[in-house]
Amino acid sequence: MEYVNPEGLRLDGRRFNEMRQIVAEVGVVSKADGSAVFEMGNTKVIAAVYGPREIQNKSLQKKNDHALVLCEYSMAQFSTGDRRRQKFDRRSTELSLVIRQTMEACILTELLPHSQIDIFLQVLQADGGTRSACINAATLALADAGIPMRDLAVSCSAGYLNSTPLLDLNYVEDSAGGTDVTVGILPKLDKVTLLQMDAKLPMETFETVFALASEGCKAIAERIREVLQENTKQLEYRRAA
Amino acid sequence: MEGRLANMWRLTVNESKFVETALQSELRVDGRGLYDYRKLTIKFGKEYGSSEVQLGQTHVMGFVTAQLVQPYKDRPNEGSLSIFTEFSPMADPSFEPGRPGESAVELGRIIDRGLRESRAVDTESLCVLAGKMVWSVRIDLHILDNGGNLVDAANIAALAALVTFRRPDCTVGGENGQEVIIHPPEEREPLPLIIHHLPIAFTFGFFNKGNIVVMDPTYVEEAVMCGRMTVTVNANGDICAIQKPGEEGVSHSVILHCMRLASSRAAATTKIIREEVEAYNRERSLQKVKRHPTLAKSVVSGPTVVVKEEHRKSSDQEKAAEISREHVERLKLSSEELRSTKVEEVAASPTNFKGGPSKWDPYSEAMDVDSLKASLASKGDSVTKSSSKKTTNGSGNAEKDAEMSVEEVTGDLGKKDTVEATKQNDGEMTLKDAVKPKKKRKNKNN
C-alpha cells in the first residue's frame, strides 16, 4: 500500500514533516487540581492531576524526601474502532510506567516531600500517537495544577514508510508494519527523556527519524507554551486586577 | 519494583555515594570497565527449547512451547508469538508472587518488541491451515536470581530457547484436506523455527545526570542509577527496538553513542549464542532419535485431539513380540508409556495390517542375532537402502553397527542407559535399530 504518493502527500494530505492539527484546552475537569484535554488530529486524550496531597499508600514510597508520582494510563473502551476487551492490559501497565517516569524526570519532586501527585490519563479517541498525546496532556495538566516543573515534557512520534521518514503517524500509518519512534524531550534543557522504538531500522535511518521527531517535539512545545500563556491571561482577566 | 515495606531493600547512603564517586573516576565496584559485560554462560536443558542463562549473578531460564490454535482474525495466515515473564519471589525479596508487576510487564514487552516487531521469528511459516490452525509459540521466562540487568539475560535466554526449539511436524490430510495430523517426534523429526536474525538487547545505566554511561548494570548500580536505556540490535546493524522509559534526560549525543556501542557488540554476542547452540546441537545429534514409521498418529480436527494407534503385523513381529517381552523384563528399563503400551498392544490384538513397501518394523525392543540374520537375508534390498541412510545417522549408531554381531544386549544396555538419561526416545536404540532399513522421511509437508 502506498503511504506517500509520488507528490509527497500522505494518506491524509500532509507532507512528511507536517504534524496533525493540535487543539489543547486547560481546566476541563473541575474537581481535579489540574486538567487538560489534548488533541492531535483524531487522537484525543484527557488528563487530570490530583496533588500534591497526602500519601495514600506509604509502601509505594521509595525516595523519602521526594514527592511520589503515580500515573494511570487507560484507554476508554470506545476509543478504538472495535470495542476494547479490557481496560487494563499489559500495554497500559507499561505505558503507565513509562509516562510516570517521564513526568517524574521533569517535576521538581524534591520541593514537595512526603506528598503524592496523581496523574490520570484517559484516551478518549485513539488514532495513533496516544502516548505522545498523553505526555503532552499531562504536562498541561501539571502546569494547570501549579506543580513546579523544571521544563515542559513534550512528546512526538515519527516513523519510516516508503523510504520516507514521516512525522506524527496516525493509526493507519502506525499499523503499516513500519517503525514507530516516540520521543519525549525537555525542550529548554534539550534532553531526551523518553525514547521508544519498535520494528527494524538501520542505524542511519534511525538518526534521521529521531531528528525529525525531535523537531516535531519542539513545535509542540511552542504550541503548549502558547496555550499556557493564553490560559494565564484568561485567569488574570477573570481576576480583574 | 513495588513491594511491601518489609520486603524492600534500600540502598544505604554510604553505598550509593561510594558507587557514584567511584564511577566519576571511571571505576566500577566489581572492577569491570564501564562497558564490560559480566560472564555469560548459556546452558540447555533436556527438552527442546529450554535454556538457562547466567549473566554474572543474574540467572534466567527460558522455555519455549508451541500449540496449535486458531489465528487472530486480522492475521489469518500468521502464527503468533507470546512472551510470559515470571518474576519468581526467590529472585528478589521485592518480587511478589501472583500478577506480574510493572517491571515484569515492561521486561516482557521489551523482549516482545525486539522479537516480534522486528520479525526475527518468521510467523508466516507457522501457519498450517490458513484461517483455521496456526502454531502459537509461547516463551516463558523465569527469573531465578536478580543480580541486575534482567532484560539482557532474559533476552538471551529467550533467543537461545527459540533457536533450539523444535516443533512437531504436521501435515494436512484427512478426507477433505482439513484435518491436521501432528506427527510425534518418534515418527518425524521435529522442525526448528525459522529465525531470520537474533535481536540482542543491551542495557545502559546513566549516572550523574546522564553524563556517565555504564553497560550491564548490577543490582546495586541499578539502585543508584538515575536512568536507563535498552537498545536491541542485531548483527546486521539494524536497530530492532529501543526502550528508554523516561527518567533522567540525556542529550542526543549520549543516545547515539550508546547505540553505536550496542551495534558494535552485537556481532560478538550473536557469535557466542550461535556457538553454544551449535555445540548443543552437535551433542544432541549424537543421541539421535530413531525414526519409526507410522507408530502412532494424533489426528487433530478442531480443538480436540484424538490419538489413534495403528498396528502393523508380520510373521516376524510375532516372534519379535515374544522375545521383546522377555527382553523388556530383562532390561528393566524405566518404561516410557509409549514403548510399554506398544509391546502390549502388539502382543494383545493386532488389528489392521497396513501393507506397504517392505519395512522392518522395529516394534520390539531387541532381537537375538540369529533371527536378525535370517531376516537380513530375506530383506536384502531393504538393507542396502538402509546402509546408504546409515551414514546420515549419528556416529553413535555407526558404532553400534560394528559391534552388533559381537555385543550382548546387556552391553548395549550400558550405552542405552547413558543415552536414555538425556532423551526419552533413546530406548528405541537397540541392536535391531542398527540393522533395520531406515526410511528417513524428508521433512516436507505434502
UniProtKB/TrEMBL annotation, chain A:
Domain Exoribonuclease phosphorolytic: 18-148, 151-215
One Pfam family named in its UniProt record: RNase_PH_C
InterPro entries assigned to the protein according to its UniProt record, in alphabetical order: ExoRNase_PH_dom1, ExoRNase_PH_dom2, ExoRNase_PH_dom2_sf, PNPase/RNase_PH_dom_sf, Ribosomal_Su5_D2-typ_SF, RNase_PH
Matching Gene3D superfamilies: GHMP Kinase, N-terminal domain (3.30.230.70)
Domain of life according to the entry: Eukaryota
Family recorded in the similarity comment: Belongs to the RNase PH family.
UniProt name for this protein: Exosome complex component RRP41 homolog
Provenance organism: Camelina sativa
UniProtKB/TrEMBL annotation, chain B:
The keyword Cytoplasm appears for this protein: yes
A Pfam family annotated for this UniProt entry: RNase_PH_C
Listed InterPro entries: ExoRNase_PH_dom1 (IPR001247), ExoRNase_PH_dom2 (IPR015847), ExoRNase_PH_dom2_sf (IPR036345), Exosome_comp_Rrp42_subfam (IPR050590), PNPase/RNase_PH_dom_sf (IPR027408), Ribosomal_Su5_D2-typ_SF (IPR020568), Rrp45 (IPR033100)
Compositionally biased intervals (Basic residues): 437-446
Exoribonuclease phosphorolytic domain: residues covered: 37-168, 197-264
Subcellular location: Cytoplasm; Nucleus
Keyword terms: Cytoplasm, Nucleus, RNA-binding
Keyword check for Cell cycle: no
Biased composition (Low complexity): 378-396
Composition bias, Basic and acidic residues: 307-325, 413-436
Residue segments, region Disordered: 306-325, 376-446
Annotated family: Belongs to the RNase PH family.
Listed name of the protein: Exosome complex component RRP45B-like
Organism: Camelina sativa
Lineage: Eukaryota, Viridiplantae, Streptophyta, Embryophyta, Tracheophyta
